User: Fold this.
Amino acid sequence: MKYQESTIVVRYAETDQMGIVYHANYLVWMEIGRTEFLESIGLRYFDMEQEGYISPVLDVHISYKQAMKYGQTAVVKTWIKSYDGFRVVYGYEIRQQDGEQLHIAGETEHIAVRKDDFKPVSMRRTFPEWHEAYLEAMK
Assistant:
């Protein structure tokens, strides 16, 4: 199974008054991880959008294990958890750079839709190169 690790230094602007990462910022980090994962397997959301399609989030699950703090370095590990030719679920783990402490476990579910009317499309038929890359990444 293919994994991608993205490194993020916790910035002051991402923390709350207590100096811990504001919970919604983990979603941004997951998006960074997902984008870098796709690029690592030769795909880009930009290319999909240029063809008139987008890939909205259908569902998000996040389990907060331990708060991250300003000045720490996070590593976002991203992979494809499941894919059926239509829906794709990405898995995420966010840990400190040393890898010992799990801070966040999560997943996001996506489909591809036409940009103009949000009608869902089959990845297998509409984006065969994505379909093959997803299957290869899951081996």
Summary: The chain has a mean pLDDT of 97.
